[in-house]
Amino acid sequence: MDVFEAMRKRRMHRRFTEEPVTEEVLAQLVRAAALAPMGGNELVRRLIVVSDPRMVKTVRDVTPSFLANPVAIIVVCTDLDLAEASMGRQGRDILSLLDAGAAAENIALAAPALGVGVSFVRCVNDSALQEVLELPGQVRLDILIGVGHPDPTPSPAAPRRAPVVFRNRFGAPYE
């Protein structure tokens, strides 16, 4: 599958089947995340693959915004101390978030080629989730990615909207 086809097929799923995702597929999704760019070429991103059904349920229970029912979750985190030591405050506060988003998008683009779907979530209860995942204090939760086999009758896809684009400066027509 070429990258543009993956972009066309990429979507966020709210409903998944109960069919497990193989370790091979999870490993390929992790590899896709690892291929994402890193600010300052520093590896400050951390991934946690949650595949134990009880842990998946617990993560969902402490994350009220997690509406999907995935069978696995990939948690994208940042080691803030390492990010600041290697790239300063901008690396800690901004570049690391760009890195997390790039890793998540790589996972989303790889998912259709692997026959699975994903759903992105941002936890609003960081302290509970940090406790559940036993994260050290310097590790920030960035994105939770639910992974599973899409339900045969998925929820409707979000509409694709044309981007707002300018040329050379804000407000100048892009023609």
Question: How do the strands of the widest beta sheet line up side by side?
Answer: 1-2-4-3
What is the number of helices? 5
Bulk shape:
globular
Give the oligomer, counting copies of the same chain as homo and different chains as hetero.
Answer: single chain
Structure, described:
- The mean pLDDT is 90.
- The protein is α+β, with helices and mostly antiparallel strands and 175 residues long.
- The chain is built from 5 helices and 4 strands, in the order H-H-E-H-E-H-E-H-E.
- It has a 4-stranded antiparallel sheet.
- Helix 1 (3-9) packs across helix 4 and helix 2 packs across helix 4 (80-113).
Write the layout of secondary structure elements.
Layout: H1 3-9, H2 23-34, E1 45-50, H3 53-61, E2 72-79, H4 80-113, E3 117-121, H5 126-133, E4 139-148
Antiparallel strand pairs: 1-2, 2-4, 3-4
Quick overview of this protein structure:
The chain has about 180 residues and is α+β, with helices and mostly antiparallel strands. The chain contains 5 helices and 4 strands.
Tags for this entry?
175 residues; 4-stranded antiparallel sheet; 5 helices; 4 strands; 40% helix
